[in-house]
Amino acid sequence: MARRPLPRILSNGTAQIARSREHIARSRELARSAADSATDVLHPLITITRGLRRLAGAGRRKWSATPKDRRGPLLFLVASVILVVALIPYGPLLAVICLMAAAAWKGRERTVPAPTGPDDAQAQRLQSLYEALVPYFSVPEDPSPLFTHGGEWEKAFPAHEFDDTGRVSHLVVRYPAYFTDGEAESRARIEQLLHAKSGRGREYHFEWDEEGNSLTVDVLPPLPTDIAAQRFVTAPGETVLGFTDPTSVQRTLPVADGDDQRDVPPVVWRTGPRSTEPHLLAVGQPGSGTTTLLRSIALQALRHGDVVVVDGTGTGDYACLAGREGVLAVECGLAGALASLEWAAHETERRLIAANRARQAGQSPPEDTRRPLWILLDRPSTLGHLAAADGHRDPQELLQVPLRHGRAAGVTVVVADQLDSVDALSDAVRQHTRARVVLGPTAPDQLEQILGAAPHTTPTAEVPAGRGYARLGTGPVHRLQVPATPDPYDDATSEAHRRAVLELLPGRTTPADAALAAAPAVAEG
Q1: By CB neighbour count within 10 A (0-12 exposed, 13-18 middle, 19+ buried), where does 469 fall?
Q2: Least CB-packed of 63, 247, 360, 409 within 10 Å?
């Protein structure tokens, strides 16, 4: 039996549907074009209608606001005006023309102009800042002072910006040429005053232009605290201490933030034979993040070198490094700390002798002398107190050789201690640790004493863990936020940070106690 052909309506139904869609789309486009054309043509009528509606609304509001005892005379006055207009020649026509003109003016589309200056509250705040600076930027001998009581702040503050809360976020201050802007005390007084008057709880950056007699004040955004420990894109001999402001450094690093990736400006510390600041000193208040910084440095150092950790706190914060490949020792007791540091001193001497002999023979240094060795010492003041109580030598004395000759031998020393124990540090530690880090809330005079220079920002009273300042040698002072590197064995550590640290740890190997015990004998031989 032959198959019957499909009906025509089914065979070309798809084509008809497509043509119908095209027809509908074309119809919509024509309707939209017609509507736009009609709007352009009827725009005057729309404007007049809108104006009439607004005039009627204004009339109703005026009538509602009129007291009842005055509505009768008002109606009589309106009726008299209408009668006079109706009796004069061409009166109704002129009245209609005036009404249409008023409606067209009232119905026009008006745009509210953007404010060109500060409002009353902002102007009052600027005037308060101006009055507070008068005693510092004026002298009686000045014939035309820029700062006077009751003067105008517009000339002194050529540029200013405010944030959403109404506080100053950017300010340019002009000051007279006789102000002693070259003296640190004078500048500190002005910075402290502007910090107090502009709003506490924020961090300000002060940029002094001594040639142009101007001071630029900017509110710094908070540094990112959500960057976890990871493998940073660095060359051998480079260590990321943390992250800073984009305007402070000329380099960025790609970091992983969950599933996303972003570029952030780092504070990179360079070590090795050609480094000008081969050793680091980190100080801070308890809980400020110095142990986190040492743990972060250890994880980065293990990529290309060996690490010896001496934990003076005895809290086991470095237990995750014990038994790992490249970790020669993790000592918490006094006896083990002394043995490890003594071995490090002999190892430094051995490397120097081997490298010197190789150079005299015209050969490259041995391979075992070129692998970097890192000595991380946390809380040496505590170990020194214990050593003095037991009649032993201070462990810091054993650091003199690695500190003095570590750069040539490929040995890097990192010391961390608390602020109240800085005076207990030995002279060798203070002289040879040219890279400095201060974490946690610190007084400005303490910052300048430790870093050797005052920062160009105002430290706040409350800061997150790992937040502080860093200065490498004689360079500028940078704001610093240490990457989150908590103890993975701590119960308070989040699961994401725990996984991040565990992924960076090298594989486990046999304990290095036997090798460490035999190392001094090898070095002596």
Answers
A1: buried
A2: 360
